[in-house]
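Bench notes, afternoon.
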Amino acid sequence: MLTIKKHALKVGALALAMGITFAACSDDDDPATPNTRSKEYKLTKSATDATQVGSVKLTENADSSVNLSITLKASTKDTKHPFYLIGGSVASPTIDTLLKDTIPGNGAEATKVIWNKVKSVVVNGQTRKFNYDSALKISAFSKVYFKAGKDSVIAIGNILKSSAQ
């Protein structure tokens, strides 16, 4: 009788260990969501007035693509505010205009998506992989004007690599 109890105890312990092993190794776990990164850059009224009037936001997606958007805290209704991404920094710009577009004003906060799920870029005719880390290596600043033909800057700020300068 004692032998049967010992044997039953061993079988019970073995069954418990197997159950824990199978439960721990099951593949019904949800896949881990990759950590994504984002960084927001402040746009000010001018190079000498630090009042924040907008921002440029760089975000990384789960698939390693990147988004870049620009937001003005206030815009003028029915006005297209031209904006530029320019190489270099506010203090030492280059002659390279990286992007030129407009932000449609609506009388309130206005946002324009500049890059949406960008995974690659073409440089000198060659397609290159582009990700969050690649974007952070670009020296650039953003400049927003009130409207075309009018030389009045309403927002300016260093972004990406230039923000550290």
